[in-house]
């Protein structure tokens, strides 16, 4: 009986710990979503933002972050509470979650390339970085991000009967791994994405660094700011790309202990999902003078006020 009581009290302690973690995550997500809504309102209020490629990429990053955070938060709550859903519905969540998990680092890479073109190829910037081209690049990013999960779904559909889609299960990305070699496939895809994006960011950083050393006056100031922006993007990418390995780690941990799996997933979610995405608001929302003026105005006066301050030069 004493053993049972201690076991029950240990289980209750774990549940309380998990509930506290869930509350912390909900508070953080609410703050990030509010900040993202303020920044998106700022973007749509001014034509100058909607016509600039860097701001279009930034706004798309915010929108994809909002959708990704909501989807992953739902999955996190379902996992913590061990709530099951039909597999076909889970697959829809996994498609959105997996695709938008890749869209974020890919868009950051695009934003880094845009800074490289603006600083190192200023004569071509106007022709390459148009509003229409920005939309084309976003479509390409979406296609690239959907490719890995599409292949996984084809493998999954070929490996399980259709009737299984109506069965109930706790929704995790691990359920799509039917064969052991699929883990190696995901590992190869992650490494490929990591190497390509890392090489692009490092190339842009080196080229902007060279431009900053050669520049003088306003050009030097602009190059220095671009260099710091690329560094911040690099740090975001490092966190985000490290997060791409998390499902592989979690797949191993879930075989050992469920509570340990939940704790590892919680830490991964905070460090590798929330942290790099909240940095987007800091990189542009607080460092960009134009955005910050409008952002501060709406943070103080709210969305309903039709007037807005003039943009600084």
Tell me what you see in this structure:
It is a single chain. This protein has helices at 2-45, 47-50, 53-80, 87-120, 122-128, 131-159, 181-214, 218-243, 246-253, 258-286, 289-301, and strands at residues 84-86, 168-170. Helix 1 packs parallel to helix 10 and helix 9 (246-253) packs antiparallel against helix 10 (258-286). A two-stranded antiparallel sheet has the order 1-2. By secondary structure, the chain is mainly alpha-helical. It contains eleven helices and two strands. The longest helix is centred in the N-terminal third of the chain and has 44 residues, at 2-45. Residues 1-15 have low confidence and may be disordered.
- Gyration radius from CA atoms, angstroms: 22 Å
Oligomeric state as shown? single chain
Q: Indicate the proportion of strand residues.
A: under 5%
Low-confidence stretches: 1-15
Q: Using DSSP, what is the number of strands?
A: 2
Key phrases:
2% strand, two-stranded antiparallel ribbon, 11 helices, disordered N terminus, single chain, 313 residues, mainly alpha
Task: Briefly summarize what is shown.
This protein has 313 residues and is mainly α. It has helices at residues 2-45, 47-50, 53-80, 87-120, 122-128, 131-159, 181-214, 218-243, 246-253, 258-286, 289-301, and strands at 84-86, 168-170.
How are the secondary structure elements laid out?
Blueprint lengths: L1 H44 L1 H4 L2 H28 L3 E3 H34 L1 H7 L2 H29 L8 E3 L10 H34 L3 H26 L2 H8 L4 H29 L2 H13 L12
Antiparallel strand pairs: 1-2
Helix pairs in contact: 1-3, 1-10, 1-11, 3-4, 3-6, 3-10, 4-5, 4-6, 4-7, 4-8, 7-8, 8-10, 9-10
């Amino acid at each position: 009986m004493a053993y049972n009581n201690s076991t029950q009290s240990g289980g209750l302690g774990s549940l309380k710990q998990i509930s506290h973690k869930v509350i912390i995550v909900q508070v953080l997500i609410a703050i990030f979503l509010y900040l993202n809504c303020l920044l998106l309102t700022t973007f749509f209020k001014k034509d100058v933002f909607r016509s600039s490629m860097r701001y279009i990429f930034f706004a798309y990053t915010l929108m994809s972050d909002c959708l990704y955070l909501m989807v992953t938060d739902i999955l996190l709550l379902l996992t913590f509470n061990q709530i099951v859903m039909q597999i076909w519905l889970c697959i829809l969540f996994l498609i959105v979650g997996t695709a938008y998990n890749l869209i974020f680092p890919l868009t950051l890479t695009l934003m880094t390339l845009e800074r490289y073109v603006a600083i190192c190829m200023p004569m071509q910037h106007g022709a390459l970085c148009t509003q229409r081209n920005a939309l084309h690049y976003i479509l390409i990013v979406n296609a690239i991000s959907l490719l890995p999960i599409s292949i996984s779904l084809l493998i999954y559909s070929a490996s399980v009967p259709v009737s299984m889609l109506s069965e109930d299960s706790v929704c995790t990305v691990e359920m799509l791994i039917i064969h052991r070699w699929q883990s190696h496939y995901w590992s190869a895809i992650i490494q490929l994405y990591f190497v390509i994006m890392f090489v692009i960011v490092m190339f842009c950083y080196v080229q902007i660094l060279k431009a900053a050393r050669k520049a003088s006056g306003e050009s030097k100031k602009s190059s220095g700011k671009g260099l710091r922006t690329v560094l911040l993007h690099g740090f975001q990418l490092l966190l985000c790309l490290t997060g791409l390995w998390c499902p592989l780690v979690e797949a191993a941990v879930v075989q050992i202990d469920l509570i340990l799996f939940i704790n590892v997933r919680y830490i991964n979610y905070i460090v590798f999902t929330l942290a790099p995405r909240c940095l987007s608001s800091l990189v542009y929302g607080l460092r960009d003078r134009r955005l910050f003026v409008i952002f501060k105005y709406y943070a103080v006066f709210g969305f309903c006020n039709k007037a807005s301050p003039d943009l600084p030069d």
